[in-house]
Amino acid sequence: MRYSSSLLAAVIILSAWAAALAQGRTYQLGTTPTEEEIKTRDIAISPDGKELPPGSGTAKEGATIFAQKCAACHGPNGNGGGLARGIVPLGNAKPVKIGFSLVPYATTVWDFINRAMPQSKPGSLTADEVYAATAYVLYRNEVIKETDVLDAKSLPKVRMPNRDNFIPAQPGWKPGEKRPFGYYP
Amino acid sequence: MASHSDRRRFLKRGGALASFVIGTVRSLRGQTPAREAILKDSLAYGQPSPFDNTIRRTLGQATAISDTALTTPLQDLDGIITPSGLHFLMDHVKGVPDIDSKQHRLLVHGMVDHPLIYTMDELKRLPSVSRIYFLECNANNRPIRGPNGESVQNVHGRTSCSEWTGVLLSALLNECGVQKEASWIVAEGSDANKYTMSIPLAKAMDDILVAYAQNGEPVRPQQGYPLRLVVPGWEAIRSVKWLSRIKVVDQPYMAWHESGNNADTIPNGKGLWYRFEVGPNSVITRPSGGQRLPGRGFYEITGLAWTGGGAVTKVEVSVDGGRSYKEAALQQPVHRFAHTRFRFPWAWNGEETVLQSRCTDERGEVQPTVAEAAKNLGVPPDYFYQADHFNGVQPWKVNRDGSVQNALFL
After folding, report:
1. How far is B326 from chain A, CA to nearest CA, in Å?
2. CB–CB of A184 and B389 under 8 A?
3. N or C end of chain A: which has fewer CB within 10 A?
4. Which of A38, A105, A176 is closest, CB to CB, to B254?
5. Roughly what angle, to the nearest 10 degrees, separates helices B33-44 and B17-25?
6. pLDDT in single tens digits along all 410 residues of chain B
7. Does the beta-carbon distance from A31 to B117 stay under 8 Å?
8. For the whole model, what pTM was predicted?
9. Which of B9, B16, B59 is CA-nearest to residue B220?
10. What is the DSSP letter of A31?
């Protein structure tokens, strides 16, 4: 009898502790996601590429994918079609051109193709296809060679042409301080 | 979807006006089912007068309405609140998603002690605040030439101001326990493209809202139903709509829409990735481009001022093309990071003149003219023709016949 009631108390304490873990600290609301739930949604790729999934691809493979899944909108050679502008120069439609792609990291290109392309069916590409399509886009922008293999290791190391032509973002900025770069211009 | 009901409302206010008025007086019977539904709709949710034509427009087009870019009719509005149905829309995500709020979840994870998932009901149980904030697109106020530069709606119509209600992002982050090394957050929407933005943690812990209501009712689908970020004073591209994920991280992630084309390029060859706050800005909304004064005599000049620096402290109006300025009256109370209404008495003598306003904010920053901005940057004024992030003074020329036109590049 004594034994079982202390067991019960232990169970109550344990489950209260688990509930506290599963909820916010002050208001005790919300539930704890499973590892799996987080993993499937954790798709944003940082410049160091730590979230990149396994897989690989080259521009050669990417050319085939591009013809099948991208050319309808971006034109046969990626020079623009009826539905979207070309992929060269990448992310650059500025009045004052600083030349070439304005995208600072190759991981940004992977991330965008992975989350948003093909626009008719975003999220439908396999990791290998995204590596290959990214390789093709970068090759067409003369950033990498046709045979370069892109994967979780090599992609973050690709140097985009305007990588150093930007004033870096300043994480040290504090609210209430003057804007880091002053008001425009 | 929202675009559908907008189209419907537009149609109703166009050709079908007369029959609409008669239809409500007669019984609903004998109407086609579609018409019956429209009429029931308009009773269940009140509609503006059919004689009124205060509507959003697509940039540069007098009548056609598009569901990807809609501008607020600033010239037709009063006070500081933008009615939700007239809030501007710039669609980066190609389509407003249809989201069932019962199914919607917000995941907060990354560099936190315990990640959490919230339902909408759970979020609404948390302590909430209501605050009046403007949202302005970074491409607003481009000094545009030609037909697109003719009205204040076209040039400045991508800023709107609402009372937003929601939970402070800092409260959610505190619930999860942010780790010491964290310095940024990545916010993601649940639209088809999963629109993503990076924001410094310092701002997230300061005043960012996770908003579920706009002007007293659930946030409209075009503005992010059921949940969105509202980042006070910052370019609206950071106020992620349809918010479903926040990851606490230690660096900016340089997502597509925050790098590349949304970065600024400046003439010395360097670019700026993050603009953050919008500069001090103001514009006269009446009289403004495309309007016509019926004759000489008294007119109250009115307009809006706003700044990412906090509160607007002064708006000055010039009725002689910038040679002299006098202080305008500000509608009280002035809210920080909100549209501020200014009013200024004026009697028109029938002669040609130029009207313009300039804003000063709580930090003492002053809105520049295009000439001043060009001089600072060492570029010809033309440079701003297509530039984003512009906050220059807007001159409106009043001609002898009473017509008003954009005088920026005259």
Report:
1. 24
2. yes
3. N
4. A105
5. 80
6. 333 444 334 333 333 333 333 333 333 444 556 667 766 777 888 889 889 989 998 876 555 667 778 999 999 999 999 999 999 998 777 789 999 999 999 999 999 999 999 999 999 999 999 999 999 998 898 877 777 788 999 999 999 999 999 999 999 999 999 999 999 999 999 999 999 999 999 999 999 999 999 999 999 999 999 999 999 999 999 999 999 999 999 998 989 888 766 666 655 556 666 678 888 999 999 999 999 999 999 999 999 999 998 999 999 999 999 999 999 999 999 999 999 999 999 999 999 999 999 999 998 889 999 888 878 777 777 777 767 778 899 999 999 999 999 998 77
7. yes
8. 0.87
9. B9
10. B
Handedness of CA A30, A32, A38, A44 (dihedral sign): positive
B253 touches chain A (CB under 8 A): yes
Amino acid letter, B397: K
Which chain B residues contact residue A107 at CB under 8 A?
Answer: 254
Chain A, nearest residue to B376 by Cα: A185
Contact A162, A101 (CB under 8 A): yes
What is chain A's percent helix, strand, coil content, to nearest 5? 40, 5, 55
Query: Would the CB atoms of A104 and B254 count as touching at under 8 Å?
Result: yes
* Token pair in block for residue B250: 């230690």
Judging contacts by C-beta atoms under 8 Å, the chain A residues touching residue B277 are: 179, 183
Which structure tokens are listed for B62?
A: 């007098």
Token digits of residue A100: 């070439």
Structure tokens at B356: 């313009």
Question: Is the previous residue joined to A185 through a cis bond, with omega within 30 degrees of 0?
Answer: yes
A108/B363 touch (CB, cutoff 8 Å), yes or no = no
Tell me which chain A residue has its CA closest to the CA of residue B280: A183
Say if B361 is an interface residue toward chain A (CB within 8 Å). Answer: no
